[in-house]
Amino acid sequence: MRIVIAEDDLLLREGVTLLLRAESLDVVATAGTPDDFLAAVEKHEPDVAIVDVRMPPTHTNEGILAAVEARRRQPDLAVLVLSAYVEHAFATDLLAGGTSRLGYLLKERVGRVGEFLDALHRVARGGTAIDPEVVAQLMTRSRPDADLERLSARERDVLALMAEGLGNGAIAERLYVTNGAVHKHIRSIFAKLNLAPTDRADRRVAAVLRYLESTQGRR
């Protein structure tokens, strides 16, 4: 796995680099500015980019914009975004463009090495990894949705874990239920959200985005 890191905090940038190299992962370049990051992506064609949300010069959304541009230039690039705290607008805007090969984690998660590495590998394999705190806060801010209100408490638990990017087996382990029970809950979620099977839509992604889209009016 070839990785580029974009983080303007030198200490954190070096710390993440050392952590990944200790796991025998190939950090091919690091960058402290969006321009340097995009140049590194162009030069090294990495598999994964780890990107801070807030970067110079204004420390607002430069990291997000750079990540979007990097994926435009290299569509197969997996991106794991790091943020100091939940930024609702950035999270929903980023995820609304599609969730494949995409992660959004709080920086505090880096200190939980196992969880951080699991998220990194999941994104690199083409999956999704959303920080549980991000999911929880986005759901808390959701506007009422008649279909979503029909979900049972357990179905909401399952959908929250789906939003983190977990598969059925991992959800079953987290909730201490069987795979069959998870499959049954997911079928019920799809039915209550009126998500019929189609060749054009991934129902898991569509269900998660229903939650995220319901935050748009309350930023």
Write down the overall mean pLDDT. 83
Shape: elongated
Radius of gyration: 18 Å
Report the CATH superfamily of the largest domain.
Answer: Response regulator
- Report the top-level CATH class of the largest domain: Alpha Beta
Strand content: 5-15%
Care to give the gist of this entry?
By secondary structure, the chain is α/β, with parallel strands linked by helices. It has helices spanning 10-22, 34-44, 62-73, 88-96, 113-124, 132-140, 146-149, 153-164, 168-175, 179-192, 203-213, and strands at residues 2-6, 26-31, 48-52, 78-83, 102-106, 128-130.
Plain-language structure description:
Residues 215-219 have low confidence and may be disordered. It is elongated and about 45 Å long. It has two domains: 2-136, Rossmann fold; 141-218, Arc Repressor Mutant, subunit A (Orthogonal Bundle), CATH 1.10.10. The chain has a six-stranded parallel beta sheet with strand order 2-1-3-4-5-6, sandwiched between helices. The protein has eleven helices and six strands. By secondary structure, the protein is of the alpha/beta class.
List keywords for this structure.
219 residues; alpha/beta; Rossmann fold; Arc Repressor Mutant, subunit A; 2 domains; six-stranded parallel sheet; 11 helices
Strands, helices and their partners?
Blueprint: E1 2-6, H1 10-22, E2 26-31, H2 34-44, E3 48-52, H3 62-73, E4 78-83, H4 88-96, E5 102-106, H5 113-124, E6 128-130, H6 132-140, H7 146-149, H8 153-164, H9 168-175, H10 179-192, H11 203-213
Parallel strand pairs: 1-2, 1-3, 3-4, 4-5, 5-6
Domain Response regulatory: 2-122
GO molecular function, one term: DNA binding
Keywords: DNA-binding, Phosphoprotein, Transcription, Transcription regulation
